[in-house]
Amino acid sequence: MSQSAKTSPRAATASDSPESAAGTKAAAQRLKMRRELATAAMELFATKGYEATTVDEIAAAAGVARRTFFRHFRSKEEAIFPDHDDTLTRAEAVLDVAPAHEHPLDTVCRGIKEVMKMYAASPAVSVERYRLTREVPALREREIASVARYERLFTRYLLAHFDETDHHDGNDDPLLAEVAASAVVTAHNHVLRRWLRSGGQGDVEAQLDHAFAIVRKTFGTGIGAGRSLASVPASAQAAPAAAVRAHDEVLVAVARTDAPLDEVMRTIEEALRNHG
């Protein structure tokens, strides 16, 4: 066989490297072990009670040594939330690759959906975890700390799109950005708790979309209203996602083909209110 026949026509990439493959495998194994430890912890908490369960018992139930447990978790209450670190990373990735034309509040809504996906992937586990967090104050405090991490991430993202120090009259962007980030997290948690209380039944994604629509309607159109054109990139001024022109009793809407539908609809709704 010739050398050319042995060589793949596809050029090698960084993702094809043995180091990359090994890193992906290690990450998968790490998450698998964290989930196994979490399952063991939840089972023991449910049968023995949280206070009576020790780290040694959790490790033994998972078939690993005590030191292995502490390589993955700092405490037994942390063990009940094995996916939050990875989910936070995925949510941050959504923000990092957001299209330039997307409203930042829409991006944040997409980012926090990664959290809901985590819970919806294992409804039975999520429901049991919810029951435990209602009964054990230490677990409840851990859950609150996790929620705060998401809220900080989304607040930083929204504030990064506006000048946090620019508090002149007529510019409420910094205030709206922070309040909107809290509203997105609160809407998500409201839907999540309702879904968990129902035993993980129902179309949670549709419920979440409805909640986010309310947040967008309440806060989305206000963010950015206080900025002057000088603070907006020239490219954004030249090519808005959607524009509406009034001609007597007729409104004409023009939108980019890649504009998000909800952004186009918001523009039309606002125009109808202004010309109503």
Describe the 3D structure.
With 276 residues, the chain is mainly α. The chain has twelve helices and two strands. Helix 2 packs across helix 7, helix 5 runs antiparallel to helix 6 and helix 7 packs across helix 8. The N terminus is likely disordered.
In short:
With 276 residues, this protein is mostly helical.
Helix content: 55-70%
Number of strands: 2
Radius of gyration, CA atoms, in whole angstroms: 24 Å
Q: Separation of termini?
A: 77 Å
Strand content: under 5%
Mean of residue pLDDT?
A: 77
Q: What's the arrangement of strands in the largest beta sheet?
A: 1-2
Annotate the secondary structure layout.
Blueprint (H helix, E strand, L loop, with lengths): L2 H4 L11 H31 L6 H8 L3 H7 L11 H13 L7 H17 L2 H13 L1 H24 L12 H25 L6 H17 L13 H5 L3 E6 L2 E6 L5 H14 L2
Antiparallel strand pairs: 1-2
Attribute tags:
276 residues; single chain; mainly alpha; 12 helices; disordered N terminus; 64% helix; two-stranded antiparallel sheet
